[in-house]
Amino acid sequence: MTMDLLKQIATSRLPISFYRAEDIDKIRILRAAGLVVALVPAPSDCLALSGGTGVAQVLAVTQKGREELMHFNSPELRHPRWRMRMPTILTRHRSTGASSSPESRRPAGPQ
Fold first, then answer.
1. Please, what sign has the CA dihedral across residues 58, 9, 70, 25?
2. Is the residue at 8 inside a domain?
3. Based on the structure, what is the number of domains in the chain?
4. What is the domain extent for residue 31?
5. Is there a contact between 30 and 3 (Cβ–Cβ < 8 Å)?
6. Is residue 17 in some structural domain?
7. Where is this region: Disordered (predicted)?
8. pTM of the full predicted structure?
9. Burial code of 60-86, b = ≥16 C-beta within 10 A, e = fewer?
10. What stretches of 1-111 adopt beta strand conformation (E)?
11. CB under 8 Å to 16, separation ≥6 — which residues?
12. Distance (Å, rounded) from C-alpha 64 to C-alpha 31?
């Protein structure tokens, strides 16, 4: 089934290549549906839209593809750890007291 292949692709390290004709046809379907970004060979029979020998390479699963997988309830599908949370940027705030003003930081001297 095409969704099983999408699930396999989503859990694999990308890019991934497929060589079997039936897998290449499934990649064409996933690409036409906008679920993956893929490079597929041109169809050899334009009427049947089935390709000959070649290699299909999947470069990415689109956001729509991930949403479809979540719709089909794939609990074992995990996003990469770097996508789980945004990095936390810590900044130190200066106190707003009189000692932090630019005038108070100047050395006392003749004026």
1. positive
2. yes
3. 1
4. 2-74
5. no
6. yes
7. 91-111
8. 0.58
9. ebeeebbebbeeeebeeeeeeeeeeee
10. 16-18, 36-39, 56-61
11. 9, 57, 58
12. 11
pLDDT digits (tens, 9 = 90+) for 56-104: 999 999 999 999 988 876 555 555 554 555 555 666 666 665 555 555 5
Nearest to 41 by CA among 29, 30, 52: 52
CA distance 54 to 58: 13
Q: Is 110 a domain residue?
A: no
Sign of the CA dihedral 44, 52, 36, 16?
negative
On whether residue 81 sits in a domain, the answer given is: no
DSSP assigned state of 36 = E
Residue holding tokens 């095409």? 2
Question: What number of other Cβ atoms are within 10 A of residue 40's Cβ?
Answer: 20
Give the residue carrying structure tokens 């690409």. 31
| Nearest CA among 58, 48, 45 for reference residue 15 | 58
